[in-house]
Design a protein that fits this description.
- By secondary structure, the protein is mostly helical.
- It has two domains: 1-68; 71-127.
- The protein is 69% helix and 3% strand.
- It contains six helices and two strands; from the N terminus they run ααααβααβ.
- The protein has a two-stranded parallel ribbon.
- The chain starts with a helix and ends in a 20-residue tail after the last strand.
Length: 142
């Protein structure tokens, strides 16, 4: 039974990664919460998958920065908010015809903007010393 539970955690984590990737392209689907949920699921299901997600995947830096309270670089924050409003603005202006869906999209955009503005803004790209380490430091010379 324990093996089945762990497998279900891994399946859930993988589904969350899929949703996070969709969230990169769809403005109303958040990326970071799904990545954090994937890390949680992998943490419960597989140490190997968790390590891959946090240390090796392209999303690892975002998860580590969020988990460690490092914040978001200013240029990423500005680009995210600009892209959010651009895509939702196009949807509201040219695609969606129903007034309540337009209102819902505007509320989502406002909510995401407020959430992003409350996250700590990091002035430098990588203040975490582990992210700037010299790759030769871990090489042993005998």
């Amino acid at each position: 039974m324990n093996r089945i539970k762990k497998s279900l955690w891994v399946v859930g984590g993988t589904a969350c990664i899929g949703l996070a990737i969709l969230g990169i392209f769809l403005p109303v689907l958040p990326t970071t919460p799904f990545l954090l949920l994937a890390a949680f699921c992998y943490g419960r299901g597989s140490e190997r998958f968790y390590h891959w997600l946090v240390e090796r995947s392209p999303f690892g830096i975002y998860i580590r920065n969020y988990r460690d309270g490092q914040g978001i670089p200013l240029k990423h924050k500005v680009a995210t908010i600009a892209l959010l409003w651009l895509t939702i603005g196009i949807s509201i202006g040219f695609i969606v015809t129903t007034w309540w869906v337009k209102t819902l999209l505007a509320i989502v955009a406002i909510g995401v903007t407020l959430h992003l503005s409350k996250i700590k803004t990091r002035r430098q790209e990588s203040p975490n010393p582990a992210d700037r380490r010299n790759p030769m430091e871990s090489v042993e010379i005998s």
